[in-house]
């Protein structure tokens, strides 16, 4: 259960959010918890990344605001690219995400719509806990003055949120990509995507595994590397000799059946998240959760 110290901090952040004229009217409580954990429970850093997150969103309304998971173009791109959060967490508490092509036709690629679909999926996932929280809450004892002077170690422990993942590991299968696919990438969308992922995402990227690398890997890397921070690039692992090296980095059993694991078929995992997107449709389209006041927007400058 979420402890009293964590709830107190979250209450303060939620009040700050709702009173901040630069931000939308509402924020999902679990999303707020993710921001706080991502910034290692630093309140001021949490505020900074939240403002940056919504600034980038509102600078790119065609991706983050004008969206609908039932839009035909979005449903079509989900038939072209698989973007799947895999069940469970690693022993380190990390979430695994799998990306792969399901349709090899380069003409069906649309990186702008792909970004829109990915961030809808992310927003859907980030409004849910990664580990189920007990439904019953115990009554908390009041904190007296002497208790408030407890050590910082105890306070830190009370701020831990074991129901939120400790980070994210992305697995990208690029075996079916060609240079024709790469030629259709929107560099504007790629720049925004990488900036958002590296600067304003409410979760920390822990590693990225690139599997089924083609012979022209160097050409593919040269296209995207200018958009990747050096510290993030160091997290990327290229697997060029089969899957065994991937199994050394992530629990094999967490992978889909198609990749030698036992997490289930890709199509079945995908259906779970397709159904969740339908349930979360109103939330994803609710401007109160995402849109900033245009009058306030015009008074501030954007980084991206």
UniProtKB/TrEMBL annotation:
Residues forming the CRAL-TRIO domain are: 74-267
| Pfam families attached to this UniProt entry | CRAL_TRIO
Q: Which SMART domains match?
A: SEC14
Q: Name the InterPro entries for this protein.
A: CRAL-TRIO_dom (IPR001251), CRAL-TRIO_dom_sf (IPR036865), CRAL/TRIO_N_dom_sf (IPR036273)
Which residue stretches belong to region Disordered?
131-154
A GO cellular-component term linked to this record = membrane
Q: Ranges of Polar residues compositional bias?
A: 134-146
Could you cite one Gene Ontology molecular function of this protein?
phosphatidylinositol bisphosphate binding
Q: What's the protein here called?
A: Alpha-tocopherol transfer protein-like
Tell me the name of the encoding gene: Ttpal_4
